[in-house]
Specification:
CATH superfamily of chain B: MetI-like
Largest sheet of chain B: none
Strand content of chain B: under 5%
CATH class of chain B: Mainly Alpha
Shape of chain A: globular
Order of helices and strands of chain B: HHHHHHHHHHHHHHH
Number of domains of chain A: 2
Distance between the termini of chain B: 19 Å
CATH class of the largest domain in chain A: Alpha Beta
Number of domains of chain B: 1
CATH architecture of chain B: Orthogonal Bundle
CATH superfamily of the largest domain in chain A: Periplasmic binding protein-like II
Largest sheet of chain A: 5 strands, mixed
Number of strands of chain B: 0
Largest interface: A-B, 49 and 44 residues
Radius of gyration of chain B: 25 Å
Strand order of the largest sheet of chain A: 2-1-3-12-6
Order of helices and strands of chain A: HEHEHEHHEEEEEHHEHHHEHEEHHEHHHH
CATH topology of chain B: MetI-like fold
Oligomer: heterodimer
Strand content of chain A: 5-15%
């Protein structure tokens, strides 16, 4: 009879074994600091996880690592997972030495206390524009440096415009007329993204800002005017009702598939568009309400920060690394490699010389506006309000004024 | 309680031993026996506490805290009482989301159950290739939801979707229904896709239930003149009632918390037309980083589910007792 006893005991022990393993993996080592001065490796976290951006940035990062004499431990995560990853790292005290953040999220993370103010390292932002710095500033302290940026503009199909005898529009009236003329059969004149995510808000901003609207209070005639323009384009049949579900990637697909003659989009689509045989396109700034006005667009792109890891020596080294990333060599390489433009307008000519199609984006840099400069950590809530108002006006049966008023005042 | 009971009975036979009956033969002390029993239970209990108990309690507590991105770094989450619930419920989207959750659940369950039952009845009559066809029915279960929703978006596209292109060929159809982009149709479209997704579950369980019904009942029924519809209402339906209740209650609990289908198809839009409590909770937590409000919404959903879970347990207990 002893035999079954032993085997039963064994089975019980085996059943309990996973628990011990579970308990054993609880403690991980936090820092890997090698003490003062002897920092030889930096942990970098970013979301450039697909080519060409992944490898272009690898080159830039390696260049700076060489320059300051460290090796890199680079980790890339999908864009949607970055913030969750950062929050998780925050609570487990395993933040990387150098952290890339999408610029509208810098203040959110700075607000959490996870980032070190760059003033303590004496970093020099150089010629980066005021608005770009504003997005990286929280409570008067600069928390990140952004080397390159991008924005959106109006892409047009050269052949379709020529065939219809239409010039690229520069004002809202011209835009409406051109879109109507170019709409024909299954083809729409215009495509944009009015999706119910922050992408939709991002696409709407240049229209409301160029019309004098402001994100702090959207229940104004200026914002309503911009929304009316979108609604007019939709009601006239110049763009598909599907705009309310299209991401910018879908918009690019419609344009490259010949289903739309014009679109609002950004330079990150160059690769996709060039792969389409026989597609010739031009790019102009987003049309303004009246001739002679200025297009005010939001800027995209990512900024690099130094998280509070608690290891002074590593943070110093990380700051040195971030400083290198906004240096001329790194900026030009990143801009050319990822179809973006420098945040320091002085560096633009060098980039345009190599990638001429970036010119219409580079010229906008001095006028580009930050999404979070005014609202800071309140931005996500207001960005939601903006896209909800856009959707309510486009397909929800509300007038632009009512939709915006409801979004602003609840 | 029900789970731990079933776990205990499930681990017993896996030990490969007859149920120990102290006293029948001379055996080792009872205390030792108890220890061994406990050792078998501990993994299950710890697992449940860790992966069910902790998240539920944590979520419950979060609902009463100001839990933001800051909390992750500082660990501080100030107690705010019912403020999160007030914020959630007073949000103009909340009423809409609650109504949509109800419509989505009722619509999905009604569709899934009716079609699932019809399919189960159909396959209950064996015919050539019925086994193959029945396994093909499980396909929607095997496709990753993210892929399925991409395909459905393509099918339902207003301008170039297969559905509208096909409808366009029909002589009596005018215009193109904006399945995913109009506020009146989007919820219907999302429900249809969720029905498609839920049919295998309903059909499989109900088919199993049908096979449990003794053939003699039908034979006896047919002698008394009960065939066709009469046989269904007088024999099949009463015999199937226990399974039906389980399918419906589980279906409701699963459907209440559906997130991926809606996120993949419409992300709650257009203009919040398909926003449900679960998508709204996801948005508050992971888009606006207001985890407290997100947790409060999650808790509201948990309470609603709990009502149905209690019904399920009661019905299940009655079924077991019988």
């Amino acid at each position: 009879m002893p035999k079954p006893t032993r085997s039963r005991g064994l089975i019980a022990a085996a059943a309990a074994a996973p628990l011990l393993l579970l308990a054993a993996c609880g403690g991980g080592d936090g820092g890997g600091g090698t003490g003062d001065g002897g920092v030889t490796e930096l942990h970098v976290l970013d979301y450039y996880n697909t080519d060409p951006n992944k490898s272009a940035w690898q080159g830039v990062l390696d260049g700076c690592a060489d320059e300051i004499g460290v090796s890199l431990n680079r980790e890339t995560v999908p864009g949607n997972d970055l913030i969750a990853k950062v929050l998780q790292m925050s609570s487990s005290r395993t933040l990387p030495d150098v952290l890339m953040l999408d610029n509208p999220e810098v203040q959110q993370i700075a607000d959490s206390g996870a980032l070190a103010p760059l003033s303590q390292f004496g970093l020099d932002p150089g010629g980066i524009t005021e608005e770009v710095l504003a997005a990286s500033t929280y409570d008067g302290e600069l928390y990140a440096l952004q080397p390159v940026t991008n924005t959106i503009a109006l892409f047009y199909n050269t052949a379709m415009l020529e065939e219809a005898g239409v010039e690229p529009p520069t004002t809202w009236d011209e835009l409406k007329a051109a879109a109507a003329t170019l709409t024909e059969g299954d083809r729409y004149g215009m495509a944009l993204s009015a999706i119910n995510t922050y992408e939709g808000t991002w696409q709407f901003l240049p229209f409301m800002w160029s019309n004098g609207g402001d994100e702090a209070d959207i229940a104004t005639p200026e914002v309503a005017g911009a929304l009316q323009l979108w609604k007019d384009l939709l009601d006239a049949g110049s763009m598909s009702q599907s705009v309310v579900t299209w991401s910018q990637g879908d918009v690019a697909d419609q344009f490259s598939g010949g289903n739309a003659a014009m679109m609002i989009n950004g330079p990150w689509n160059f690769g996709t568009l060039e792969a389409v045989e026989g597609l010739n396109y031009g790019i102009v700034p987003i049309p303004v309400p009246e001739a002679g006005g200025t297009t005010v667009s939001p800027f995209g792109g990512e900024a690099w920060a130094v998280p509070q890891t608690g290891d002074e020596a590593r943070m110093e080294k990380a700051a040195e690394f971030v400083q290198c990333l906004v240096g001329e060599e790194a900026v030009v390489a990143a801009a050319v490699g990822t179809n973006t433009v420098p945040t320091d307008p002085a560096l633009a000519p060098d980039v345009i010389a190599q990638v001429p199609s970036l010119e219409s984006f580079a010229v906008q840099v001095p006028d580009l506006r930050s999404r979070t400069g005014k609202l800071g950590a309140e931005w996500p809530a207001q960005a939601t309000a903006i896209y909800e108002a856009v959707q309510n006006a486009l397909v929800g049966g509300m007038s632009p004024e009512d939709a915006l008023d409801q979004a602003q005042n609840g | 309680m029900a789970e731990s009971r079933s776990v205990a009975t499930a681990t017993g036979p896996s030990g490969g031993l007859a149920p120990p009956r102290p006293g029948r033969r001379r055996r080792r002390p009872v205390a030792r026996h108890r220890v061994v029993q406990a050792a078998f239970l501990v993994p299950a209990i710890v697992y449940m506490l860790l992966f069910f108990g902790y998240p539920v309690v944590k979520n419950l507590v979060m609902g009463f805290q100001e839990y933001t991105t800051r909390t992750f770094y500082t660990g501080e989450a100030p107690w705010v009482g019912l403020a999160n619930y007030a914020t959630a419920i007073s949000d103009p989207v909340f009423d809409r989301a609650l109504l949509n959750t109800g419509l989505f659940t009722v619509g999905s369950i009604a569709g899934q159950f009716t079609i699932g039952l019809l399919i189960a009845l159909f396959f209950h009559k064996r015919f050539l290739l019925s086994g193959v066809l029945r396994s093909l029915l499980l396909l929607p279960w095997l496709i990753p939801m993210i892929a399925a929703s991409a395909v459905w978006r393509w099918i339902l596209d207003t301008d170039n979707g297969v559905l509208n292109r096909t409808l366009g060929l029909l002589p009596f159809v005018d215009g193109r229904p904006a399945w995913l982009t109009s506020t009146s149709l989007a919820l219907v479209a999302v429900i249809v896709v969720n029905i498609w997704l839920g049919i295998p579950f309903n059909a499989t369980i109900l088919y199993g239930g049908l096979q449990e019904i003794p053939e003699e009942l039908y034979e006896a029924g047919s002698l008394d003149g009960a065939t066709g519809a009469r046989a269904f209402w007088c024999i099949t339906w009463p015999q199937l009632r226990g399974v039906v209740t389980v399918v419906l209650v589980l279906g409701v609990v699963y459907t209440l918390k559906v997130l991926d289908v809606i996120l993949g198809l419409t992300n709650g839009g257009p203009a919040n037309a398909t926003q449900t409590i679960s998508t709204f909770s996801y948005h508050m937590s992971f888009r606006e980083f207001d985890f407290g409000v997100g947790a409060a919404l999650g808790n509201i959903l948990v309470v609603i589910s709990l009502v149905f879970a209690v019904v399920y347990l009661r019905v299940n207990r009655r079924a077991v007792d019988e």
